[in-house]
Amino acid sequence: MKLFFKKFDKSSSGFTLVETLVAVSIFTVSTLGLMVFLGKSMADTGYAKKKTTAAYLAQEGIEYIRNLRDTHILYSSTSSDAGWNSFVAKILSGSCQNSNGCYFNVDNINYSDSSQPIIDMTLTACGSSCTPLLYNSATGKYGYTSGANSGFIRKIYIVQTSADEMKVSSTVYWTQGSGSYNMTFSQNLLKWVEY
Fold first, then answer.
1. Alpha carbon 108 to chain centroid distance?
2. Is the Cβ–Cβ distance between 150 and 132 less than 8 Å?
3. How many angstroms separate the CA atoms of 110 and 66, rounded?
4. What is the pLDDT of residues 56-82, one digit of tens each?
5. Model pTM?
6. 89-93: long-range contacts (C-beta < 8 A, 24 or more apart)?
7. Is residue 18 part of a domain?
8. Which secondary structure element, helix H or strand E, spans residue 54, and what is its range?
9. Domains in the chain: how many in total?
10. Which domain holds residue 161?
11. Domain for residue 39, yes or no?
């Protein structure tokens, strides 16, 4: 039995410097690509969170104005027509029909008050800009009296389309990164009569 031994050649063993640099370059490029993808994913997640919150805040704006209308009509001491007229007067006094819109504050409403507390909701004209909503982390609520600046601004715009109808738009604005965004919900509120 004859054994064959291969002579050891130093040039064919291990990695050369060029091969090592190519391998490190491939690893670096793939790692950077992964980091860019993860960064974009995190930014998209942040945007989706802000957009969802803005949608809820815009819908809340519509709901408060609808509740105000319903309360005026249902609990008017004289008639549903008088309740509608009282609701229209409240909207006009809050200057929600101007081009800058208005905002409402429900932070100081006493909900244990038996005389329909939502009627005490204040509507304030925005002027050149509206007050940003504050987020109270202890209560989980957005308002205007306590909490940290949420970065969201809600404006209510109301157009009286006829004597018996109003178009309510609730727009929430926010900035994120280098962009400005907004979310608008609209609904027509009709005068209805309770029999």
1. 23
2. yes
3. 19
4. 999 999 999 999 999 888 887 787 788
5. 0.76
6. 90/119, 90/123, 91/65, 91/123, 91/158, 91/160, 91/166, 93/123
7. no
8. helix 17-74
9. 1
10. 45-190
11. no
